[in-house]
Each structure stands twice: as structure tokens, then as C-alpha cells.
Design a protein that fits this description.
With 233 residues, the protein is an alpha+beta fold. The chain contains seven helices and eight strands. Strands 1-4-5-6 form a four-stranded antiparallel sheet, sandwiched between helices. A two-stranded antiparallel ribbon has the order 2-3. A hairpin with a 5-residue loop joins strand 7 and strand 8. The two termini are 20 Å apart.
Length: 233
């Protein structure tokens, strides 16, 4: 289950509130650059206030290697902010992996400019954290987030576990449509279906290309992990 959680992008553009964006293309590759940024900042070390004491941070349930840095930008001021996101696990509990911001670096538009105080106060960290699990995290864990056979969707409606495998309906009229697309695709994958997208087309009685479009849109929204090359569905 933890492996499945780690395979999902921690932050996508849809998680950001109005006025913020992810530069495209980004000069930061979260998967390849994050460990180097951690090392440059000595993030993996805990420095004791007492002089001369510096020891490794040893956490039995939060692996610092799983942290990822993402660059976001404030549209109006062009201020860039590096956010470090990491899943936080609690010993002895189901590995839901709630995402938390574990580091922030401010970069004004021009090197050497001061950081504006309002920008420090108004960085929407809580809104970003709240958006991540609501839009994505539940989808990749399949049935594990159904409590008592039901799940509360981002729109507030209640979804029953048995309804996941029903025809999907109209994207423009169905609340949480792409969240349910992700849930159905994930359940079919977990059940060993060799081509889950084709099965989804069969369930909803739509052309395969339509179901492929739904799944592609769910991936773009970050509700499903990227598809694997050479693998159907």
C-alpha cells in the first residue's frame, strides 16, 4: 500500500489555489533533484542547539528520502517558492500517508530582492495540503478508505463501495466524476484486470476511446499515477 502511495505525484497544478501556478517547464524535477536539494540544505541532519552536537535524525516511521521539492510561482508578483512535500506516516496505523509541507524556500522575482512580508503571511500552505488528499490520495488506495462501506467524496456526497463498479455516467452531470473514474480503474487493476480501461468502456457502454479519454483526464488531474509504457489500460 505504501508503494502505491509513493507512486502518486505529491503535487500537481490543480492542487494550487487561484493566483498560483507551477512553471512549465519547471527547472526542478522532483524525482531527480530533490535528494540533491536535501543534501545541499543538509536537510537530512538534525542540528542540536548545543555547540558541536550534530546527529542523524532517526525516525522509525517517516523516511526523509520520500520528500520531494516542487517549484510554484505567484502569478502577480512572480515570486517563486520551493515547497518540500512528504507523506507523514504514524506508527501502528493504516498507512494513509497524509501529505504535509516539510520545507519552504522563498525566491523573489529578482535575485537579491527582499522577500515581501505579505507573501510570507499569505502563502496558502494549509489550502495546498488540504487539496492533495481530497483530490487524489483516496483514489489510489482503492477500497481501503471506504469506512463502513461508504466514502465521502470531495463534493460532499456519499459514495457506496458497491457503486464504484456501476456505469460512470456523464462527466458534466456526475459529481466527482473523475474521482470515481480513478476509483473504478484502481479497483479493476487491484483485481488483476489486464486492461482496466477496456473493461471500464464495457461497463459504461461507451467506445474505448471515450474511456481512454476519461482515464487520461484523471491522470492529468493527478487522480491516477502515470501510465506505464507498454502496459495496456
Amino acid at each position: 500500500m505504501v508503494e502505491e502511495l509513493e507512486s502518486v505525484t505529491l503535487l500537481v497544478a490543480a492542487d494550487l489555489p487561484a493566483g498560483w501556478q507551477m512553471p512549465e517547464p519547471s527547472p526542478i524535477d522532483p524525482e531527480h533533484d530533490s535528494s540533491e536539494i536535501d543534501a545541499a540544505l543538509r536537510y537530512e541532519r538534525w542540528v542540536d542547539p548545543a555547540p558541536g552536537l550534530d546527529r542523524r535524525l532517526n525516525s522509525s516511521h517517516n523516511n526523509n528520502d520520500s520528500g520531494r521539492w516542487f517549484l510554484i510561482q505567484h502569478v502577480e508578483s512572480s515570486t517563486r517558492v520551493l515547497l518540500r512535500l512528504q507523506r507523514q506516516y504514524v506508527m501502528g496505523e493504516e498507512p494513509k500517508g497524509e501529505v504535509r509541507i516539510t520545507g519552504i524556500v522563498y525566491l523573489p522575482e529578482w535575485a537579491g530582492d527582499p522577500v515581501a512580508s505579505p507573501m510570507l503571511r499569505n502563502l496558502p500552505t494549509s489550502r495546498i495540503e488540504a487539496a492533495i488528499p481530497n483530490r487524489r490520495q483516496f483514489a489510489v488506495t482503492g477500497a481501503s478508505h471506504f469506512e463502513g462501506g461508504t466514502m465521502t467524496m470531495p463534493s460532499g456526497r456519499t459514495l457506496r463501495s458497491e457503486d464504484v463498479m456501476k456505469p460512470l455516467g456523464n462527466p458534466k452531470r456526475t459529481p466527482d466524476f473523475y474521482e470515481v473514474v480513478a476509483l473504478q480503474h484502481t479497483r479493476l487493476t487491484d483485481d488483476g484486470e489486464p486492461n482496466p480501461t477496456a473493461k471500464m468502456a464495457q461497463i459504461s457502454r461507451v467506445p474505448l476511446s471515450t474511456a481512454q479519454g476519461w482515464v487520461a483526464r484523471a491522470r492529468r488531474k493527478g487522480l491516477l499515477p502515470p501510465g506505464r509504457r507498454g502496459r495496456a489500460g
